[in-house]
């Protein structure tokens, strides 16, 4: 299987950087607070391979968390099975990123009620997640996108992201070039 790397410089990563910078519009006409720690996501071929296995099963549902300990997951389906991987990732990103304008997200702690409201968005922006792998597959009933994340997020009682001065709690390196699409994101050493 090829390692596709479908999220490079897409709106998915740009949105994470905008969130880190405090430039994502909220539901009150303002902006979400900036993040002191928000990792740039690195593509992980093993996560992509696991996403491939689940996508090709065509369940069109989330996998059981017990089958992927410590790994987060998002899914997205489209009725047009002829869409390509990039288009599926872009459509999913557009849908997932409507959440900040629909819900009051002043509390960044992930609560039990959030699991029903916006699990895809919160997993996509979980600040301590540093790796992602996605795969989309043409199933009989439509196209099915699965994204897997490490470290997994959506942990009840934990922060979706840390609010604070941009990059102030990065443990390794911060992209401080304001002309970069990754500006404000932390980078791991591996």
TrEMBL record:
Residues 7-157 form the SCP domain. SUPFAM superfamilies: PR-1-like. SMART domains: SCP. It comes from the Eukaryota. InterPro entries: CAP_dom, CAP_sf, CRISP-related. This is SCP domain-containing protein.
